[in-house]
Every structure is written in C-alpha cells, then in structure tokens.
C-alpha cells in the first residue's frame, strides 16, 4: 500500500493497523480473543459501558512500575559514584490523591507547583517534608501555607521571593530549606513551549547572577540554602542538554561550596516518552547510567565530591500509563488539492480533555479499540467536537478504512497533561479518571456533570429557593 501524500514523513503506513506497539501503549494493554483492546484485563467495551466516553484509563501497575524502575535505576547508578538521589514525582503532569499515594509508596517525593497541588498531596496523607514547591509567581498566601505546613523545600524562582519566604519562616518559627532555580541557558532539543532554560524565559535566575543571589539567601538566618536547581525543558530524547546543564551547574556548585558546603544539586526532569512509533525514548537504565557518568566526570574534573542529586520525572511515569477512550461520531472524507483524501473522524472529546495537540502540535497514536479489522489502512485525522478548527486530538494516523460511527477510539500516552490541562470549553464536562488493575476498574477522579457546571453559575436559583 502506498502512503498517503498528506501523511507526515515520520508516519509509516502500518503493516497491521490493529497492532499495539509496546513502546507507545501501557505495559498491560493487549487485544482480547475477540479483538477488543483490554487494559490490565478490562475490555474497552466494559469500560465504556460503565464509565462512558471520553474516559482516561490508567494502567495502575504500569504507573507504579515506572516510578519504581526510575527510583531503582537512579539509586543504583548514583550509589555507584558515591552519591544518592531523591526522586520527585512532578505533580503538574497529573495529580490526584491516589497518584500521590502510589508515588510515595514507591519511595518518591512529590514536586508541586501551586497551593492546589500541595493541598491534594496533603489530603492524600503525604508528609509535607516530602514535598518540593515550584513556581515562578508564588503568592504570599501560597508561601505562607507552604512554610506553615512544613514543606520540605521551596525552590526560589526570583529575587523577590527570598524576603517573602524568609519572613514567612520567621513568622512560623521555622528554618526553611530552599533551592535556587538557575536559568542555565541550555537550549534543549524540544518544542519552543517546552524549553524552559533559554535566555528569554520567565523561569529562574540567570547563571551570571547566581552567586550574588545565593549570598542574599544566606544572609537570612531563617533560610537554609541546600542547593541549586535546573530544568532545561520537557520531552527530551537525548542526554546532551543534561550534560551541558550539569557542566554549567557543577561549576557554579563548586564556587558556591568553596566556603560553605552545598549538599544538593537538582537536575530537574523532562525525560521524553514515545507518543508514536517514530519516537525513541531512552531506556531508564541507560538514562540513569548516562547522567551518573556525566555528573561523576564533571565532579572529577572540578575536584569536588559528588553532591546529593535530585530529579523530577513526571511525564515519563504517568504519561505512558494512560489511554483515553472516545466514541467516534461523524466521519467524512476531505478531498485536498491534488486529489489526496484525508478521513476526518470526529470524537466526543477534544481540546477540553487533551489540549496538547492544539497548544503545540503534539503528535499521538490511535487505534480502534472495540474490534479489529482486516480493511486496508487509510490516513485519518481524529478531531474533537469543539468550535475550533484547531481542535485536533490526533493529527495523523492510519486506521482501518472501515472505521465507523460508534467505534471506540483509543489514544495512548495521555497521562501527562491530559487531565491536568483539561477544561470546560463549550461547557463540556471534564471526563472521569479510572484506574484498572488485575481485571478490575475503579474511579479515582469523578467525572463532572452538567449539574456541576451549572452549580457555579451565580445566576441560577437553586431548586426550592424562593426569590
């Protein structure tokens, strides 16, 4: 079969449009004897019958296994070079109380970026000392709540935060651990919106200003400076950017440690995952070994001890574990200049449950989930139901040509920033999140209803109330 000329170069025409490539789908995603997609032993039709669509489905064992694998790999590699690692789960990818419990049970700390994320973690019973608090514009209230709760570490993102955190710590009689976020100037190989260490950027302190800012931090007796922090971006597939960031940060670390020891160095996260079969994510063991060797070599060159290391994976843990199920509605063939045809498959969700495609052109995969088909593959674009031309879920994929209304469409690797960025555009209610394990399913985040949406409208008189 010839590829459709409208298909992007990276998208191969599949030999089998029903296959589930292991690099993209969660570990426990399979086809049943009847051809249905099953996740952790629960068939797609059963999930749709119980929870409707759209629905986010998390392979619980997969998520926990990925967290455990990352911690074990980094623990082992940094022990090899005489150090240790604190692994923070980056809650911004997706957080609810169950996820928080899974992560801490696996030995991870949690990184939060707002008072709301902190509240969820605390509601899950996570000890505040296991939390790190990020954010480029933490409010006075957020800082006060974090310090009062006994949060483990606050990452200072701007000079003005120094006094604010010091005052809160004094007020609550605490000595607050802080890190300083450094804008290393490293240009990570990723989308512009995902690169967070370039010069024209809202995050962090310029590398050239770092020593003076650390001196200001150290001038406050209510603050304990424990190290510097860097995050060069997200969805990164090689270690070159991390290597350069580590080199620059360790040179700064050596200067800062000359008179007063600095125990830690936080290298951030941003490890990429496979959204399509064209993506080649680094195996965790290889990533951990490479970063440990980079840090070891730089410390040797500088003649310093290897500091305690922290990392902050989020997407690489929760992203591959989750699949979103939709129901196909309208289907139309669109003829493009030159005679090529693209089949538009519109589903019952869209940019309200997965904003990444519309926001920065992210690519995803898709499969028909309720059956298999022997029909030839055709190029499709999976569109949402919102009133926006840019409301696309999957920009380009090959599906069997007999895809029809009522088919269940599964989109894998939606765990990171799917639910987290979900919204109510066009007054669509946000979908539920369902965890599946060992043939059983349960809701871990309830889906919204129209009543939920209307309950916030102050112009509606509650039933039974008199004017």
Structural features, described:
- With 467 residues, this protein is an alpha/beta fold.
- It has 2 domains: 167 residues, Lyase, Ornithine Decarboxylase, Chain A, domain 1, CATH 2.40.37; 237 residues, Alpha-Beta Barrel (TIM Barrel), CATH 3.20.20.
- 28% of the residues lie in helices and 23% in strands.
- The protein is built from 12 helices and 21 strands.
- Strands 4, 14, 15, 16, 17, 18, 19, 20 and 21 form a 9-stranded mixed sheet that branches.
- Helix 8 links the parallel strand 11 and strand 12.
- 48% of the residues are buried.
- About 2% of the residues have low confidence.
Task: Quickly count the helices.
Answer: 12
The coarse overall form would be globular
| Structural class assignment | alpha/beta
Q: What do the pLDDT scores average to?
A: 93
Highest CATH level, the class of the largest domain = Alpha Beta
- Count the beta strands: 21
Task: Please indicate the count of domains.
Answer: 2
CATH H level of the largest domain: which superfamily? Alanine racemase
Task: Provide the gyration radius in Å.
Answer: 24 Å
Content of β-strand:
15-25%
**Largest sheet properties:** 9 strands, mixed
- Binned, the helix content reads 25-40%
Topology:
Layout: E1 29-31, E2 37-39, E3 42-43, H1 44-51, E4 55-59, H2 60-80, E5 85-90, H3 97-105, E6 109-112, H4 115-123, E7 131-133, H5 140-149, E8 153-156, H6 160-171, E9 176-183, E10 205-206, H7 210-218, E11 223-229, H8 240-256, E12 264-266, H9 284-302, E13 308-311, H10 315-318, E14 322-335, E15 341-347, H11 356-360, E16 367-368, E17 377-383, E18 392-400, E19 408-412, E20 433-437, E21 440-445, H12 450-455
Parallel strand pairs: 4-20, 5-6, 5-13, 6-7, 7-8, 8-9, 9-10, 9-11, 11-12, 12-13, 15-17
Antiparallel strand pairs: 1-2, 2-3, 4-14, 14-15, 14-19, 16-19, 17-18, 20-21
Helix pairs in contact: 2-9, 5-6, 8-9
